[in-house]
Amino acid sequence: MQWFPHAITIDLDDTLWPIAPVIERAETALHDWMLAHAPNAAVRYPVEAMRALRDAVAQANPQLAHDFTAQRKLSLAHALTDSGHDEELVEAAFAAFHAARNQVELYPDVAVALDRLAAHAPLAALTNGNADLAQIGLQHRFVFSLGAREHGSGKPDAGIFHAACVRLGVAPSDVLHVGDDPELDIVGAARAGLRTCWINRRDAGWTHAEIAPDLHVEQLGALADWLDSCMPDSNNNAHPPHSAWSAA
Predict the structure, then answer these.
(1) pLDDT at position 232, please?
(2) Looking at domain 7-16+106-229, which CATH architecture does it have?
(3) Contact 64, 148 (CB under 8 A)
(4) Distance between CA 137 and CA 95 in Å, rounded?
(5) What distances in angstroms separate CA 190 from CA 70, 203, 218, one per listed residue?
(6) What torsion, rounded to 10 degrees, do the Cα atoms 175, 178, 182, 186 define?
(7) What are phi and psi of 162, to 5 degrees?
(8) Could you give the C-alpha distances from 116 to 86, 90, 137, in angstroms and in order?
(9) Helix, strand, or coil here: 146?
(10) In the chain, what are the domain boundaries?
(11) Closest CA to 8 of 115, 116, 124
């Protein structure tokens, strides 16, 4: 009998939308906000300098590796006070950044594919980032979203995968994790006991000899196609398009 997921966990950044242009726009929005509300900081810390400051803060605070929000706020506090502004501006500055950070453009296949996947199994978002599905307009497609900041550690740590499985009420071996990052998503989920689907939009080669994805597709819509073809019949027998579980 073919394996079929009882639940699906899905990464967000670079799986449902490209993250690089989002962060670039958010950093520009933050700079524009500082020009209006903290001009000394805007002059002293233009976009490239603010980016370097955030990287330095992250490196100096490894305990916050799972918390991009805290990293960003610390860097803002430093930039503001270093430029003679009030640290109380941090929350408003971060709000300007975060609002733009959640103005994402989905990959063309994603919106329809999410609905198709949800028809097969409950979906949960599992992310190391700080995207807000409510602001983005995708919250209704997921039973919950679990972030590294909320959990206390991020992928590839097994704990965040297991926490998602507990909230779903499904054993790890019955959960399919979907993501773009070979190490964080695929190796991490596999080591935690989940099945895996690698979304490989860049046609990259797989380089991890010890672990391979159970499924390997170029877009989320292809995973929906695969699950449609594997739908169990009335006797609980799946009819896959391949003779084995792996479509890699």
Answers:
(1) 58
(2) 3-Layer(aba) Sandwich (3.40)
(3) no
(4) 17
(5) 29, 21, 19
(6) 0
(7) -65, -35
(8) 49, 41, 17
(9) strand
(10) 7-16+106-229, 20-101
(11) 124
Q: How far apart are CA 136 and CA 142, in angstroms?
A: 12
pLDDT digits (tens, 9 = 90+) for 219-233: 999 999 999 888 755
- How many other CB atoms are there within 10 angstroms of residue 49's CB atom? 14
Q: What is the dihedral of CA 27, 33, 39, 43, to 10 degrees?
A: 20
- How much is the pLDDT for 1? 44
The CA-CA-CA angle for residues 60, 71, 160, to 5°, reads 100
Any catalytic annotation for residue 180? Answer: no
- Which of 11, 67, 180, 214 is flagged as catalytic? 11
Cα separation, 54 vs 60, whole angstroms: 10
User: What is 20-101's CATH number, 3.50.50.60, 1.20.120.1600, 3.40.720.10, 3.40.50.720?
Assistant: 1.20.120.1600
Q: pTM for the full model?
A: 0.90
Which residues, given as ranges, of the chain have pLDDT below 70?
1, 232-248
User: What size, in residues, is the chain?
Assistant: 248
CA distances (Å), origin 120, targets 15, 37, 128, 230? 19, 48, 25, 10
